[in-house]
Amino acid sequence: MCATTGPSTSDSQVDGQPRLADALVQFAHLIDHLFADVSRGLGLTPQQVQLLCELIQGPVGMTELTGILHVERSSLTGLVDRVEYRGLVKRIRHTTDRRVIQVALTARGARLAMKSYDSVTAKIAELTSGVAPANATLLTKIVAGILADNGVPLISTPEVR
Asked: CATH number of the domain that 73 lies in?
């Protein structure tokens, strides 16, 4: 399936409902657009916003960030260089292994990261405002479970404030 042209077969529905995979692909695109809108408003790229949001809970090693952001080391180096130049992150040596370089938010970067995070989550809350509370709770549990099963940490407001 190509996300821009729809399913490649006529079985895009099951019992008259969209297939889960199709719905999730389109939802992922919608979230990507939200990140793009928020980042553009802040003068950043979506990748820069994602990097800042990943650092909200504390410094992360460059090697770990390549996996989290799904980028090659050289691409990550350039990304970190650009946000470091803007004063949003800093590279720090790991306390016990000087070969390891971690990336951490500066005070300015932390403020922008939270502004980005709050803006994206507010837009998502607006999009999902019509979802019944019981369905929202169920969807939250399902998505959190999928994230956990795939080793993706959940950033939530109580943990970051």
From this structure: 1.10.10.10
DSSP 8-state assignment for residue 131 = S
The model carries a pTM of 0.77
How many domains, the chain? 1
List pLDDT tens digits, range 3-39.
Answer: 445 554 446 666 778 898 999 999 999 999 998 999 9
Domain around 53: 19-150
Dihedral sign from CA coordinates of 68, 1, 36, 119: negative
Instruction: Work out whether strand 17-18 and strand 13-14 pair parallel, antiparallel, or are unpaired.
Output: antiparallel
Domain-located, residue 3: no
